[in-house]
């Protein structure tokens, strides 16, 4: 059965693509979840219009993320934490702490966009990447300093 994908489906194809799939896969999964439509002439025209609208929206989102990335490139945040004598933190700095510090400076970022492999457990300066969009990544500077008692 030939269907037109309305969304990106992993290991199958991209949005707007014409693919040939098993009848059961189309009837039981793709069509009920509205991930695809049957490949008729009318549906091809409708999906093409949707694809054009999606491309315009996507271009705007990428442009907005790029501008935000340029602004964030100059951002430097400082987080004060309690620490021991050999620069080890009592606790750690997580993506949630980074997002809260960014919000204090007026930037609203989802914490899932902070690409922190593991929590920071030492004092020092760090470059933290932020994935603002699939194609846009910005980097901020984080200073972890010892909290004064």
Description:
With 149 residues, the chain is of the alpha+beta class. The protein is built from three helices and eight strands. The strands form three sheets. It has a three-stranded antiparallel sheet, covered by helices on one side. Strands 4-8-7 form a three-stranded mixed sheet. A hairpin with a 2-residue loop joins strand 7 and strand 8. The N and C termini lie far apart (70 Å). The model has no long low-confidence stretch (mean pLDDT 89).
Briefly characterize the structure:
The protein has 149 residues and is α+β, with helices and mostly antiparallel strands.
Name the descriptors.
149 residues, alpha+beta, three-stranded mixed β-sheet, 3 helices, 8 strands
Write down the Rg.
Answer: 23 Å
Strand order of the largest sheet: 2-1-3
Determine the number of helices (DSSP H or I, runs of at least 4 residues). 3
Mean pLDDT: 89
């Amino acid at each position: 059965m030939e269907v037109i994908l309305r969304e990106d489906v992993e290991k199958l194809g991209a949005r707007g693509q014409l693919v040939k799939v098993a009848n059961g896969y189309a009837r039981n999964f793709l069509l009920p979840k509205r991930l695809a439509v049957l490949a008729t002439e009318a549906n091809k025209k409708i999906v093409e219009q949707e694809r054009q609208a999606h491309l315009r929206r996507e271009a705007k989102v990428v442009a907005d993320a790029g501008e935000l990335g340029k602004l964030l490139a100059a951002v430097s945040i400082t987080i004060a934490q309690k620490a021991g004598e050999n620069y080890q933190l009592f606790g750690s700095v997580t993506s949630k702490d980074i997002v809260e510090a960014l919000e204090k400076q007026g930037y609203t970022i989802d914490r899932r966009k902070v690409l922190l492999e593991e929590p920071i457990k030492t004092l020092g300066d760090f470059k933290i990447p932020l994935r603002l969009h699939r194609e846009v990544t910005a980097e901020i500077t984080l200073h972890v300093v010892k909290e004064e008692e």
